[in-house]
Design a protein that fits this description.
- The complex is a heterodimer.
- In chain A, the strands form 2 sheets. Chain A has a 6-stranded mixed sheet with strand order 6-7-8-3-9-10, with helices on both faces. Chain A has a 4-stranded antiparallel sheet with strand order 2-1-4-5, covered by helices on one side.
- Chain A is built from 10 helices and 10 strands.
- Chain A is an alpha/beta fold.
- Helix content of chain A is about 35%, strand content about 25%.
- Chain A is globular and about 55 Å long.
- The two termini of chain A are about 30 Å apart.
- In chain B, helix 1 packs parallel to helix 6, helix 2 packs antiparallel against helix 3 and helix 5 crosses helix 6.
- Chain B is globular, with a radius of gyration of 20 Å.
- The chains are: A alpha/beta, B mainly alpha.
- The interface between A and B is medium-sized, with 34 and 22 residues.
């Protein structure tokens, strides 16, 4: 469903700040795979997601989504394959537009936009029903501006927007990191529901090792632009946080900040 | 006196078409588009040359003015989206280039239209109205048509994509909207209205002048903020899209009324630019200052409690 081959990305090439963000990434996701990604700051997790999304082009390698080579496709063009939720709740929604208008924009992801009316009655009913399932009371606030919503409500809405049209791959970039623990738990719960229900192929970056182990069927760990650990199925479900810590120290060969990984 | 005010109202309405154009870039796209000074004059020049040299139908001349404005907007759009030149600079480049182009089009710096028929004389002849009344009615009809079209357009899929681009570009791209295309479209549409406005102004004042667009963007911004302040004062604060468009035109009328009053008081018309700039500067700083004061009050309260 998603295949990265030898993907390499270097920032600030040829300057003193040169940084190899992705150093030959090979990754193959089967349909329905739910992969959690962990790793320290600067390991390349977000860069990998942004590379798949097309926020910037790779320096080497190829990106293939559902059989289509998207390596040189613009961000807007390849959006038809991808659902995205960002770390910052402000990025995923249009503040000055209504909840239903945001959803209508998302429902047209990857479709040709015409001079037809931007939102239909049937859509409004569908949105109302989908919003009701979030259990946040948003179904009665269809014409409220999104700017009035809390961070958690906005992330839940963005998640709904990303999946209202089933994406080939769902990209979640630390989408609960900016939320308080209770709201984060709720958004994760909604995430699991949505992913399971639609059997979505998903990549989820997280700082929380507990969530990384608990959720999904596969876990990868990144360090210095490389995938240093890749575990799935039975083996993954037996993982303990201590295993991950050990693995990380082993592969990275450095002392590392336990507290930040645990608490982040 | 009353005549002066009637003149100011119809002037405000004709310039209101330009204000609607500026609204698209300034409020929906969050760009202060400096092309406007050039494209307004371009609209006027094209219209004047077609009427005087080619004896064109005045309505067709207006269409041509709008089309010329769109082209100018597209040039700014291409500079901004394809070549990544900052929007303000892209606008200045087009504006500067248009100065020479406008002179080339007219061949001189001023063309009088005294003997040519125009849309206002056409209508006043057909109905027996005075030309001043005709200007008012045609202006209102054009503005109503433009507002209705904009209201429709920004409700469509493409129009919504355009609003999304101005609101949150990251999201827009993630939802498959090519923001280069939407920006180009918005800049063309906006300057098309500005060109149309230039054509209408030229026909109503019966001349086109190379300097007729100078400071137009400031007039546009001033009209928008005046309209917004007035909208805030109304019950319900007039938040809907159509009422925001209408208040932009009302802002334009109020602007030209203020101008008429200033002139009646014996002040120099050239001081109007200073007054406009001050109005815009105040209107843009008020929200910033009041937010800062609110935070300070809140902080003080917190310290005392």
């Amino acid at each position: 469903m998603l295949e990265l081959k030898g993907v390499r990305k270097v920032f600030n090439t040829g300057t003193v700040n040169e940084k190899v963000a992705l150093d030959g990434i090979d990754l193959h996701l089967l349909p329905g795979d739910f992969v959690t990604i962990i790793g320290g700051n600067g390991a390349g997790k977000s860069t990998m997601l942004n590379t798949i999304a097309g926020a910037y082009l790779v320096d080497a390698g190829t990106v293939t989504v559902n059989g289509t080579d998207v390596t040189f496709m613009s961000e807007a063009k390849r959006a038809k394959f991808l659902g995205r939720v960002f770390q910052d709740p402000r990025f995923g929604t249009a503040t000055d537009m209504q909840i239903d208008e945001n959803l209508a924009l998302a429902a047209r992801r990857g479709k040709r936009r015409t001079l037809a009316w931007g939102i239909t009655h049937e859509e409004r009913e569908l949105f109302r029903e989908r919003l009701a399932r979030l259990g946040l009371g948003l179904e009665n606030r269809l014409s409220d501006k999104v700017g009035l919503l809390s961070g958690g409500q906005r992330q839940a809405l963005t998640l709904l927007m990303a999946t209202i049209q089933s994406p080939d791959v769902l990209l979640l970039d630390e989408h609960t990191a900016a939320l308080d623990p209770k709201t984060a738990a709720l958004v994760l719960e909604i995430t699991e529901e949505v992913v399971t229900e639609n059997n979505l192929t998903t990549l989820m970056v997280t700082h929380n090792m507990h969530d990384a182990i608990r959720m999904g069927n596969r876990l990868i760990m990144m360090s210095a632009g490389k995938i240093i650990f890749d575990v799935r199925g039975e083996e993954k479900s037996r993982l303990q946080i201590s295993d991950l810590m050990k693995k990380f120290e082993e592969a990275a060969g450095v002392e590392f900040d336990n507290d930040r990984m645990l608490l982040g | 006196m009353l005549l002066a005010f009637q003149g100011a109202v119809s002037q405000g309405i004709l310039w209101g078409v330009m204000v609607l154009g500026v609204y698209i870039t300034f409020r929906l796209l969050d760009i202060a588009d400096l092309t406007v000074d050039g494209s307004l004059a371009l609209g006027g020049c094209v219209c004047a040359v077609l009427l005087v040299n080619n004896g064109a139908n005045p309505w067709l001349a207006l269409l041509a003015a709008a089309f010329a404005g769109m082209l100018a907007g597209a040039v700014t759009g291409i500079l901004h989206t394809v070549f990544d030149i900052p929007a303000i600079l892209a606008g200045i480049l087009t504006q500067t280039a248009l100065w020479s182009i406008n002179l080339r089009i007219m061949g001189k710096s001023n063309i009088p239209l005294l003997k040519c028929p125009n849309v206002f004389t056409d209508i006043s002849k057909a109905t027996g109205m005075t030309q001043a009344t005709a200007a008012l009615i045609i202006g209102l009809a054009v503005v109503a048509l433009v507002i209705a079209s904009l209201y429709w357009f920004f409700g469509t899929e493409i129009g919504s994509a355009l609003r999304a681009t101005g609101n949150n570009e990251t999201m827009a791209r993630a939802l498959g909207i090519d923001t280069r295309v939407t920006k180009l479209l918005a800049l063309s549409l906006s300057n098309g209205l500005v060109g149309l406005s230039g054509g209408l102004i030229c026909q109503s004042q019966k001349y086109a002048d190379i300097g007729m667009g100078t400071g137009a963007i400031i007039i546009g911004l001033a009209a928008i903020v005046i309209g917004e302040v007035l909208g805030q004062l109304m019950p319900g604060k007039l938040r809907s899209f159509s009422s925001r468009l209408i208040s932009a035109v009302v802002g334009s009328i109020v602007y030209f009324l203020i101008r008429a009053i200033v002139l009646q008081l014996g002040m120099d018309a050239n001081d109007m630019k200073l007054i406009s700039a001050v109005i815009v500067a105040i209107a843009l700083s008020v929200p910033v200052v009041s937010e800062r004061m609110r935070l300070r009050r809140q902080l003080k309260k917190g310290v005392e409690a």
